[in-house]
Amino acid sequence: MFSKKSDGIPKRWARERPGFARVFDRAKAMAPRKTLSGQGYCAATAEEVVARVSQGEMLSAVCADPAMPSLRTVMRWRSEHPEFAEEMRLAREALAERFSDLGWTMALEATPQTAFLTQVRLKQLRWTAAVLGPRTHGRLKAADPPEPPQTHTVLLRHFRIEEEAGTGRQRVVGFTPDPDTLLPVRTSEGPWKEPVDPVAKAAGIQALIEAGRSGGARRLEARDAAEDAARDAARDAARERRDDPEGWL
Looking only at Cα atoms, what is the longest distance across the chain? Predict the structure, then answer.
């Protein structure tokens, strides 16, 4: 703590040393101070901060006012109170609009003599407007956060053969998992059928094989006969052309 005598030393140093003055002003802006309603968040003070920023005053200048909270307090309010953070975002976008309008006016009033100075100021205004309102004036538009991945539940239906006791008849039964419990639930039942005799089934399969073989042999014989007939006809035609080249016979 500074005494009354030493309280004026920092102020004197600030007047004599420009570097210390900048550091001293920054420390005063960041130092915690009581708000108009005492410690803690004050809705009226927060509304005043928002109004002054939206009217064209920089936040650092507002916080430099002894009647306003410090810059650190305003940052804490923004992190702890979403409604105040949203109002500050809108106020900063309004300030970015003011800078945009100011830049347009400066561009219209530029002359050949002030063109370079106007260009420097416009670059700074453009950068400041992008920082204040990244959603409206930033080059890289803020994107919404990605949506959480959607989950898909795939239910596989399976079947099994059920046998009737006593008769030996069989049928196909289908099961589908329940979406909530994922336990199999019986959903379909086929008609009862007599059991298949393996001996008769094997005999039927062998009969089909033999029929296919015999049918294939008949097709081969018919193809060979057609090829022989075509060769004979070609040979007879060649013989006739050789025996009667002028076509008198």
Answer: 150
The span from the CA of 209 to the CA of 166, in Å, is: 35
Q: Which residues of 164-180 are buried (b: 16+ CB within 10 A; e: fewer)?
A: eeeeeebeeeeeebeee
Task: Give me 10's structure tokens.
Answer: 């920092």
Tokens found for residue 169: 């008849």
pLDDT tens for residues 52-62?
A: 888 888 888 88
State both tokens at 52: 């002054």
pLDDT at residue 3, as a whole number: 46
DSSP labels for 91-143? Answer: HHHHHHHHHHHHHHHHHHH--TTTHHHHHHHHHHHHHHHHHH-HHHH-SS---
Determine if the pTM surpasses 0.70: no
For residues 229 and 136, what is the distance between their CA atoms, to the nearest angstrom? 90
- Quick: pLDDT tens for 94-150: 888 888 888 888 888 889 998 999 899 888 888 888 888 877 777 766 667 778 888
Q: By mean pLDDT, which of 8-12, 48-52, 79-83 is the weakest?
A: 8-12
Starting at the edge strand found earlier in the chain, the sheet holding 158-163 runs 158-163, 170-177, 184-189
> C-alpha angle with apex 54: 49 to 57, nearest 5 degrees?
75
The SS3 assignment for 148 reads coil
Contact yes or no for 78/114 (Cβ under 8 A): no
Cα–Cα distance for residue pair 40/205, rounded to 1 Å: 92
**Cα 147 from chain centre:** 6
